[in-house]
Amino acid sequence: MGADPECTILVTGFGPFDKHVVNASWEAVKELQKLWIDSKEFSDIELITKEIPVSYSYVSTQIPQLWKKHNPTIVLHVGVSHKAESLTIECHARSNGYDRFDVDKKCPNETSIECNVLKTGIDVKELCDNVNKNCEKHECGACLSYDAGRYLCEYIFYQSLAVESTKTLFVHVPDFDKYSSTQTAKGLYDILCYLIRNLKYS
Question: Which N-terminal stretch is annotated as signal sequence (predicted)?
Fold first, then answer.
């Protein structure tokens, strides 16, 4: 890229855990990167993708570092959910209650963590409606959720919301039996298009 990008978007997916030996979230993010390069629609915007280990300690130390390093205009975290039937846009995240072991067989130390809920500052209802308006084009529907699952998905969402809630979004994607990686990537691309256009006209 010759000129400096106008802004930077950071998109993360998760690595393997439990039965998800190949994680649908990271596979979709990799496809999203290809779509981004091929489309050339936003040549002035840099898309950075990152695979995140399903580890509380990694997330708590590295997510703030990624914010500092890239100073992103938008952060989109993506995770897989066996319950998801469509792109599931999460509305908020909680600070505690993470008692399910990660890939390191560990949970976060919550002895000094107060119970807190952080909401995304993005208009998720309008975003969801927009995705559903375009669903024939990319074959992805969307819905809203108020329970991100108290595992690494909600944990990473909370960490980023604590940095900058107005720039942070989390989307749960279905497993491969519901949507292909390409199909999911098209839906995620549509989400980013909406967020970018809102930025440009705000």
Answer: none
